[in-house]
Amino acid sequence: VGKMVGIGVKIINDKMTYNGEEIWGLNTVNILLNSPAEEIGMKVGDFVFRIYVNDKAYNIKDIGYDEALDLLLGEAGTKAKFTALRKTGDAYEEITFEPTRREITTTSVYYHVAKDLDPNGKIGIVKIEEFDYTTPTQFTTAIDTMKASGCEKFIIDVRNNLGGLGDSLHAVLSYFLNEGDVYVRIKDKNGEITSEKIAPVSNFSGDQAGCNVKKEEIGKYKGLDIVVVSNELSVSAAELFVANVKDYKLGTVVGTK
């Protein structure tokens, strides 16, 4: 995780009404920077409803989400072809795209000082796109860089974050919690409850090393003045991040459920 072969989009299974008919498709919720999808002009909200294989068209309503996703994936250097609906005003336009798949190095965290919110530069915005092996390192870089520039308050944006890795979530939450704090409880079908706790981690290496947690790093951002923004697509690991912020009163949560 941190690298992928594809066109560089995040999509969810969704449905809409088009020309009086209910159709299923893949709703684009995020487009990676410097990706084939960005280069060909795809936009968030593009609704992919038809995919082509050897120029034969398949409606996603007929083949299903999993099969459609498999057809979008492929080897680097090959082309994907699909048709999407894009809403402009009250009308929809059908657009056919043909991006070339390639290996993409993903950026999971973006940040900037929000001069538009505070001309004095005291507010920083951190956008977590997903929780992958790169996220903990990129997150600390974001916070530390903006703190050094004078930021005192932070908006952490997990809107449209579809989740990711539990180890990545553990590392990020460890910066805000105490060693031994429970960050997730799981109840199985028999009623048995298991708990995951914040603890030092040292077993990751290589590209995964960012998920290691040093004992001295635990709680380093405790007391940081944060507001977390979420929406209906903040799910899985992102949902657990929001839940911990609320349960441990780490900051204010705004947005939609």
Question: How does this model look, in words?
Answer:
This protein is an alpha+beta fold and 257 residues long. The protein is built from six helices and 15 strands. The chain has helices at residues 36-39, 60-63, 65-72, 135-148, 166-174, 237-247, and strands spanning 3-6, 9-18, 21-31, 47-53, 56-59, 81-88, 91-97, 102-105, 109-113, 123-128, 153-157, 182-187, 193-197, 225-230, 252-255. Helix 4 (135-148) runs parallel beside helix 5. The relative contact order is 0.13.
How many angstroms separate the termini? 27 Å
Tally of individual helices: 6
The largest sheet is: 6 strands, antiparallel
As a percent range, the share of helical residues equals 10-25%
Low-confidence blocks of residues: none
| DSSP strand content | 35-45%
**What is the H/E order?**
EEEHEEHHEEEEEHEHEEEHE
Mean pLDDT: 92
Beta-strand segment tally: 15
**Structural class, from secondary structure content?**
alpha+beta
Question: What general outline do the C-alpha atoms trace?
Answer: globular
Rg over CA atoms, rounded to whole Å, is 20 Å
